[in-house]
Amino acid sequence: MATPILIGAPRPSPFFTPLFVAIDRGFFAEQGLDARMSYKKGRDALASGEIDFASGGSIYQQYLSGDVTMICGHATRETSHVLMLRPEIESVAGLEHVLLPGGSGPRGDMFMEELRKILAIYGMDLEESRIETGRIEGSHPEQWKMLQEGIGDAATLGAPYCIFAARSGYRNAGSAAEYGQSATGSGIYVAPESIRKDPEVVRGFVRAYAKTMRYCATHPTETLETMVRYANDWGVDDEVIAKAVYDEVAPYWRIELDVAALREMLESGAQELGQPTRPVEAFLETRFLDEALAGLDAL
Predict the structure, then answer these.
(1) How many CA atoms lie within 13 A of 298 on its CB side?
(2) Which one, of 104, 107, 94, 233, lies nearest residue 152 by Cα?
(3) Which of 46, 126, 243, 295 has the maximal Cβ count within 10 Å?
(4) What are the E-state strand segments in 77-170?
């Protein structure tokens, strides 16, 4: 009998397509896992046991609390967000009002920091610029709708909404990738207790995901079909849009981990917060990934 697992992700964005493929193409099922997605779920849901696995970039910020463990990678960057300017605005110097997702909480703070770094590419300081940031209680669909209604000068949009904006003449003013990769990118996480209680479930997940990552790279047509099925409500409603999104995000999908970068992130994070430095080994469990990569050809 298959073991049911619930996988959390922020939203049904095409950025998370490898998870969709692992479900849709039966790779989790091959490992005895009956997997489903659950959206708007992150670290708190993982720690409480509401979900079994979580994917995303912001969860790594909770490493210092010690209640999440990273088991493999998902992408080498946290997001696919691009600052898109209205056609009539020639440069970031002309911005007065930028729409940011995530509301006023910690998630919104992450997008504020993202905007701050993009502006820094142009030698601009967000606070000194006096740009108004409309932190909306929503995400890219709501941002794009507001822009179409004439609200705001620009927005940080993820795929496919940055693609819709570009096709409407909006200017691409830069993305997270242009100011450098984050220390961790986006990963897959579990609660430490899950590894102690159900190591075979974690092993099966990573085995399936390793196979999925290779499949997504070698079977683009089938990957696009799955993307349309799972991200249709997020604006990916045909394979033309799916192909444009795939070309944007697929080069960054990667299951391998950069342990040295993670160690550096933990050290700088602890220093920022005035906390003792914790060893990276306390937040990583790489044995499942090592096993999966070593046996990938046999999967």
Answers:
(1) 5
(2) 94
(3) 46
(4) 82-85, 97-100, 132-135, 154-157
Token couple for 195:
């590894």
Long-range contacts of 162-165 (CB under 8 A, 24+ apart): 162/80, 162/81, 162/82, 162/84, 162/248, 163/241, 163/244, 163/245, 163/248, 164/235, 165/84
The whole-number average pLDDT for the span 164-188 is: 80
Predicted TM-score (pTM) above 0.85: yes
What is the structure's pLDDT at 60?
A: 47
C-alpha distance across the termini of the chain, in Å: 20
Task: Name 133's bridge partners.
Answer: 98
Residues β-bridged to residue 72: 188
Give me the domains of the chain, ranges plus CATH numbers. Answer: 3-78+182-298 (3.40.190.10), 82-179 (3.40.190.10)
Cα–Cα distance between 88 and 95 in angstroms, integer? 11
When the pLDDT of each residue in the chain is averaged and rounded to a whole number, the result is 89
Q: Write out pLDDT tens, residues 183-194.
A: 557 899 999 999
Q: Which amino acid is at 292?
A: A
